[in-house]
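Input sequence (145 aa), recorded before submission:
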Amino acid sequence: MLNICALQGRLARDPELRQTNTGKQVARFTLAVDRGRKDANGQSQTDWINVIAWERLADFAYKYLSKGQMVNVDGRLQSSSYTARDGTSRTALEVVAAGINFCGSKADSTGQPSPAPAGQPAAAPAYSQPGEDFALIEDDGDLPF
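Predicted structure, token format:
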């Protein structure tokens, strides 16, 4: 049997860190994952997926992740059943994280470029217009190989 999940999305809120009765750390957060299509009104469709991380990964999530940040999460899907206050049976799904990776830069979550560290030049733009940063090379048809 196989139970593997891979998600990429933005944190909908800052991770919450708690400790179990046995002393294990657990962090919970929600990922907003775009479905890649729009509804009838032209609005993007988003899934809100609960993620849980344990021990060292929980500590990492709590210290380094924040609302709006783009991350990749891999792990497994877990379901649990419970009885709601009104007496109805409910099922909850969450992803138990095995790995969390940053995806993009801080500029992706704030909309502003990250400042360059002291003593280092700012990063070059990822694209440029012709004539700005390069010159066109005439092709004489002679290939070097």
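Checked by second reader. Confidence is low (pLDDT under 50) at residues 111-137.
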